């Protein structure tokens, strides 16, 4: 390995360590690719989506959009302990689902993941 490659590997390692440290201390930020992907597991996101679907039923498109933005803003404004409590609540809701429903949802999650991997691979 040349001196250049060694220096490049060292720089990459330091950059990754810096990013990792920032990620642990940085507040959760809404990203347009998915918002709470780092905050909730896929199963927990499904449960949150089910709640949102029930809350938004019967609303006009403008009301739905406003309610969605409010819900996302509320999630992003939570403290770490509030996030953990919310995550635990969603996990408890997931655990309470019947096994057949869990299997159905997990299959759908796998389909989404495969479709997403295919899109990103192109």
Description:
With 122 residues, the protein is mainly alpha-helical. 77% of the residues lie in helices and 0% in strands. The chain has five helices and no strands. The longest helix is centred in the N-terminal third of the chain and has 23 residues, at 3-25. It is globular and about 30 Å long. The model is unreliable at 4-12 and 14-34 (pLDDT under 50).
What tags apply to this protein structure?
77% helix; single chain; mainly alpha; 122 residues; 5 helices
Fold blueprint:
Layout: H1 3-25, H2 42-56, H3 61-77, H4 80-95, H5 99-121
Helix pairs in contact: 2-4
Instruction: Indicate the low-confidence ranges by residue numbers.
Output: 4-12, 14-34
Helical fraction: over 70%
Question: How would the global form be characterised?
Answer: globular
H-E string: HHHHH
- Strand fraction equals under 5%
N-to-C terminal Cα separation, in Å?
Answer: 32 Å
Oligomer: single chain
Structural class: mainly alpha
How much is the radius of gyration in Å?
19 Å
Discrete helix count: 5
| Largest β sheet strand count, sense and barrel closure | none
What is the strand tally? 0
Mean pLDDT: 76
